[in-house]
Write a structure and sequence with these properties.
The complex is a heterotrimer of chains A (about 300), B (about 280) and C (about 270). Chain A contains 11 helices and no strands. With about 300 residues, chain A is mainly α. Chain A folds into 2 domains: about 50 residues; about 240 residues, MetI-like (MetI-like fold, Orthogonal Bundle), CATH 1.10.3720. Chain B contains 12 helices and 2 strands; from the N terminus they run H-H-E-E-H-H-H-H-H-H-H-H-H-H. The longest helix of chain B is centred in the C-terminal third of the chain and has 35 residues. In chain B, strand 1 and strand 2 form a beta hairpin. Chain B has a single domain, classed as MetI-like (MetI-like fold, Orthogonal Bundle), CATH 1.10.3720. Chain B starts with a helix and ends with a helix. With about 280 residues, chain B is mainly alpha-helical. A two-stranded antiparallel ribbon of chain B has the order 1-2. In chain B, helix 3 packs parallel to helix 6, helix 9 packs antiparallel against helix 12 and helix 11 packs across helix 12. With about 270 residues, chain C is an alpha/beta fold. Chain C has a domain of about 180 residues: 3-Layer(aba) Sandwich (Rossmann fold). Chain C has a 10-stranded mixed β-sheet with strand order 5-4-1-2-10-9-3-8-7-6, sandwiched between helices. The radius of gyration of chain C is 18 Å and the shape is globular. The chains are: A mainly alpha (about 300), B mainly alpha (about 280), C alpha/beta (about 270). Chains in contact: A-B, A-C. The interface between A and B is large, with 82 and 76 residues.
Chain lengths: ~300, ~280, ~270
């Protein structure tokens, strides 16, 4: 009896130490990960705060660091997002509707499309740039390195995200709604268009915003597609050359800084503008999700 | 239906574009030299087209990234899934999502302007070049932590509570239950997350382009520049190569290599995800 | 067993007077894939009556009722054999459009399923989609009155239907069904998710609606069948193969007080099921 209790006592002591050590290690790792994020944000903020000003937003880039600004990049990004959104919303939603509501999963081509979407979601972004270069900028469509080409390339990149989010949103609508509608004598299309889709809009909108916030920060595909780094005008049409915020930031990072012209703060300030935009978009997405989420 | 075809078209498009140019490329350069040569100087007067240094560069940065991401990511996942109170989860998860949402160019900037000078050189007194693979690899590691963390956490949370309770009932400690019951049960999801993270690291461009250097290296000195597959594509494309030129074709050849590597990894990862979903649903 | 007198209504069937069948089922078998769920069902449903389908779980009552408005079409593996004749026409002829069928034969489900819209839009959905002409406000009010839920809804027509209680939601679903002016109303265990008071209200409503509509109701509540229906069909499951079969079909009074089949008697007296 007493040996039994001793055994329990001893195990408890060293066991608890192990448990505690483990728990602390986990916490330390977590702290390290989050800590780096914090250090990163603070570093960028410190570097860039000085250069951030209304002038910065209104000026175009320039050799003289003091006079340089991000206007071309800002508007370029806005144009790109516009093109991107105009493409991903109809195509993404239509594909999601097809896969969720009409596609018979037993047919092999539907499964192929599904697998396809999953794969495309994980292809490196620079490969999308190559695709854009080969087909949109040169090759069959030969659009040249213009806003339309850049926007479409980004659209293809984030399209899988929209399709996947759209499917989840449609799937969340319970089948009892569909049955109720069909039982009244509505056709499948009427049911989808008037009941299912409206109910799924908040989820789809959130997905689109998240997709756009991914697209906004992408640099590599734009480099390959030919976004110009040094440009002193805003896009004036779908067929105009363009730049984007990440491209300008990249340009400033790449330039050698010296005492006369220090480009580092410009890059950091550009990053700050980009991050603010991102935070705003994510905030809208979260607000949308919370306000309109349907509890079934 | 039409819209769905667009996604099919995209894949076909990617494959076609890459393959077409690659075939032309191999018209000029032997496949053997490409795959097995160790000098990558395609734009020299006397060019060499051995792609191995680029693959080594990609491999090295990815390996370093995984060394960072796997322990930290799994630790985060284990903590969030098994130990954290709901309130802690509510604060930490958005932070991980924030980490995942930071554009890679920001990480690149950070690697070059802070990590290398302050952390590696000043804090750790390491003698590294300003463009080095170590800094790039470590920063990529942090970048992919959310992938490992969120999918692994998902996988661990879907392990039924009954399994844990059975082990607790036998007198096991939380540490033992976590490591010997939950972890193995969630293994296929965890492996899926690692493979996916690896694929992401392989495809990462901006961090290596900014901080990893544009000199390929056929050696093991991570303190120096090691150009990766992605960095090469980025650097060359920036130079606006003419259609049909050698430089243009190299973009596609290297691009194909990259695509094939990531495709294989993605298919493996999808397999694992399907397995872990099946077991518990 | 019968705890409440049936309310007398002008359309009540007098024994001996001719019934007008609107549905005639002959040797109907429904299978999912290869496995039959209910087999060789033959009976008819009369106009302006309430016909109840009763029986233990799994005997195929819901499967059968869903044949009557071709809702089984929504399940890919479902197959219907035999004749389902509606007003003299085979419902499953290839030329028949299931959408048209459902405009005339409405359905109320076990769990109330209002749309995530306002009460007004819930009712208006059917008429709009079917292109019905007329003043929508009037149509909505008429439907809600008919379903005995107007008083509870009239002050909050624009509010979300989810704000209603379970019983109100179910009456809303009935109103929604009535708004498209069907011929027949199918009810698949309409009260099983509701409390007794709501159940009572809906039963009163059914008897009221009988004056204008033909009603088929699936219920596992025998007392309910006894209370409201004119004729009752009793189904059971064959012990070995677990396939549903129709055991007895007759006037409700006979089924409950003097059943012909011993299985029926066992079920209605509570010995089994």
């Amino acid at each position: 009896m007493s040996t039994h209790q001793d055994a329990i006592g001893r195990a408890s002591g060293s066991q608890r130490a192990k448990d505690l050590a483990f728990r602390l290690t986990l916490l330390a790792c977590l702290a390290l990960a989050i800590g780096l994020l914090v250090v990163l944000l603070v570093d960028v903020a410190l570097d860039g705060a000085g250069a951030l000003s209304w002038d910065f937003i209104n000026n175009f880039t320039s050799i003289t660091a003091d006079k340089a600004g991000i206007q071309a990049g800002l508007w370029g990004t806005i144009w790109l997002m516009g093109v991107c959104a105009c493409f991903i919303v109809p195509v993404g939603v239509a594909t999601a509707i097809y896969l969720e509501e009409y596609g018979d999963p037993a047919k092999w081509w539907n499964r192929l499309i599904e697998l396809n979407v999953q794969n495309l979601a994980a292809v490196p972004s620079i490969v999308y740039g190559i695709l854009g270069l080969a087909f949109l900028v040169r090759g069959p469509l030969s659009l040249g390195n213009v806003v339309l080409a850049g926007g479409l390339t980004l659209a293809l990149l984030v399209l899988p995200m929209v399709i996947i989010a759209g499917r989840e949103a449609l799937r969340a609508v319970p089948s009892s709604i569909r049955e109720g509608s069909m039982a009244l004598g509505a056709t499948q299309w009427q049911t989808i268009w008037r009941q299912v889709l409206p109910a799924a809009v908040p989820g789809i909108a959130t997905g689109v915003i998240l997709a756009l916030s991914r697209a906004i920060g992408e640099t590599a595909p734009l480099i390959v597609v030919g976004a110009v780094a040094v440009i002193a005008f805003n896009p004036d049409g779908l067929d105009s050359q363009f730049t984007a915020m990440p491209i300008q930031i990249f340009d400033w990072i790449s330039r050698a800084s010296n005492n006369v012209n220090d480009y580092r703060p410009l890059a950091a300030a550009g990053i700050l503008v980009l991050m603010v935009l991102l935070l705003a978009m994510n905030g809208v997405a979260i607000w949308l999700r919370n306000r309109y989420e349907q509890k079934w | 239906m039409l819209a769905a075809l667009i996604s099919l078209l995209t894949t076909t498009g990617i494959v076609y574009a890459l393959v077409k140019e690659t075939i032309v490329f191999f018209g000029d350069v032997g496949l053997g030299e490409f795959l097995f040569g160790t000098k990558w100087t395609p734009l020299f007067g006397e060019p060499s087209f051995g792609v191995l240094p680029l693959i080594l560069g990609t491999f090295a940065t990815t390996l370093i990234a995984l060394v960072v991401a796997i322990p930290l990511g799994l630790a985060a996942a284990i903590y969030l899934s098994e130990y954290a109170r709901p309130r802690v989860r509510k604060t930490v998860k958005p932070m991980l999502e924030l980490l995942a949402g930071v554009p890679t160019i920001v990480f690149g900037y950070f690697a070059l302007t802070f990590f290398t000078p302050e952390v590696l050189r000043r804090f750790l007194h390491m003698d590294v070049a300003i463009f080095n693979a170590l800094a790039a690899g470590i920063v990529i590691g942090f970048l992919i932590i959310p992938i490992v963390a969120s999918i692994s956490e998902d996988s661990m949370r879907s392990v039924p509570q009954a399994l844990r309770e059975g082990a607790f009932g036998l007198g096991a400690s939380k540490f033992q239950v976590t490591l010997r019951v939950v972890f193995p049960a969630a293994l296929s999801g965890i492996v899926a997350s690692i493979v996916l993270a690896m694929s992401r690291a392989v495809g990462e461009t901006m961090v290596v382009l900014i901080a990893g250097g544009q000199q390929p290296q056929w050696g093991a000195d991570v303190g120096k520049s090691m150009e990766t597959l992605t960095a090469f594509i980025g650097a060359t494309a920036k130079g606006d190569a003419a259609t049909g030129s050698t430089a243009y074709k190299t973009i596609f050849a290297v691009g194909t290599t990259l695509f094939v590597i990531t495709l294989v990894m993605n298919l493996i990862s999808i397999r694992f995800v399907r397995r872990y979903r099946q077991v518990y649903e | 067993m019968v705890t409440r007198e049936k309310a007398a209504s002008p359309a009540e069937h007098k024994p001996g007077a001719p019934r007008e069948p609107i549905f005639e089922l002959e040797d109907v078998t429904v299978s999912y894939g290869d496995k039959p769920a209910v087999r060789d069902v033959t009976f008819d449903i009369a106009k302006r009556e309430i016909t109840a389908l009763i029986g233990p779980s799994g005997c195929g009552k819901s499967t059968l009722i869903r044949c009557l408005n071709r809702m089984n079409d929504l399940i890919p593996a479902a197959r219907v054999e035999g004749n389902v004749v509606y007003h003299g026409q085979d419902l499953y002829r290839p030329e028949v459009d299931p959408v048209e069928v459902r405009k005339r034969i409405g359905m109320v489900f076990q769990k109330p399923n209002p749309f995530p819209k306002s009460i007004y839009d819930n009712i208006a959905f059917g008429p709009r989609v079917l292109g019905m002409k007329g003043d929508m406000d009037e149509i909505v009010e008429r439907a809600l009155r008919h379903a005995a839920v107007w008083d509870e809804a009239k002050d909050r027509l624009k509010t979300n239907a989810f704000g209603m209680s379970g019983g109100q939601q179910q009456r809303l679903c009935i109103a929604r069904c009535l708004a498209v002016e069907p011929d027949v109303i199918l009810m698949d265990e309409p009260c099983s998710a509701l409390d007794p008071i709501s159940t009572g209200k809906i039963e009163d409503l059914m008897i009221d609606l009988k004056q204008e509509y033909s009603i088929v109701i699936v219920t596992h509540n025998m007392q309910q069948a006894a209370r409201v229906s004119d004729r009752t069909a009793f189904f059971t499951v064959t012990p070995e193969a677990r396939i549903g079969t129709l055991v007895e079909f007759d006037d409700t009074e006979i089924v409950f007080t003097n059943p012909k089949d011993p299985r029926t008697e066992a079920y209605v007296t509570g010995k089994v099921g």
